[in-house]
Design goal:
The structure is a homodimer. Chain A is about 55% helix and about 15% strand. Chain A has about 110 residues and is of the alpha+beta class. Chain A is globular and about 60 Å long. The structure holds a DNA duplex (30 and 30 nucleotides).
DNA sequence: TCTCATACCTCGAATTGCTAGGTATATGAT
DNA sequence: ATCATATACCTAGCAATTCGAGGTATGAGA
């Protein structure tokens, strides 16, 4: 039944997560706040978005998880795998492409 | 039942359509090809995406439609209303905001 | 006549993201 | 001691968007 391609603009949460984890390992709750910060409050993704994406990235092999007890609580730290770095590069390219495309469309004054 | 907000990155098809129609009135089939062109092939939205969006923009008062017979066929030409121009400005602002936010996130090398 | 391009449309499914919950521990205030 | 808040994890169910694959009809050209 010809499975549908993912929507052309999806994967931004994924992109942001991978990008943040490129610097250092982080845990979910931390990533939620961090996305708000690094995007200058422009993008705010709740835990209901982030956690499922993290799980799916782990299942697909882009991330590996590590449980680490910190002050009585247990955090789940995620870090990039080699595959994850590749995935990040791909998503970054995709993003550039559509971003440039939209920019072109918006800036052309009289595109004929 | 607390209606859900639209997904944070949606409305790009809407934005592109309104932007193209800012220049001149166009018809659906034409808009489908035009989006591919002006985005440098980066974005390709099928008729199954475009027509419903056009209809919804008309219903919401951003566009007005005009049936025009051309060479035996009938085309439906759409043009921006005043409200549509306002909507375009809003969507453009939204886009800038998130675009900038993502750019910031991607470019920060060691964001601490 | 047959095919292709034009030109409109809609339905069903897949995917996403959102809201709203739920659990549990630590910390600080009352 | 108790209550509220922040931390930290999670999932379920719904809503919105987009995608793919159709369907209809006309005109032009081979």
């Amino acid at each position: 039944m010809a499975k549908t391609n993912p929507p052309f603009m999806s994967g931004v949460p994924e992109l942001l997560l991978l990008r943040l984890l490129k610097n250092r390992e982080m845990y979910g709750y931390e990533l939620v706040r961090s996305i708000r910060e690094v995007t200058g409050e422009a993008i705010s993704l709740g835990e209901g978005v982030i956690y499922p994406v993290l799980h799916s990235l782990e299942r697909s092999g882009s991330l590996k998880a590590r449980r680490k007890p910190v002050g009585g609580r247990t955090r789940v730290y995620y870090s990039l795998t080699k595959q994850g770095r590749g995935r990040l590069a791909d998503l970054q390219d995709d993003w550039r492409r559509i971003q440039t495309g939209i920019e072109t469309a918006l800036e052309s004054p009289g595109h004929a």
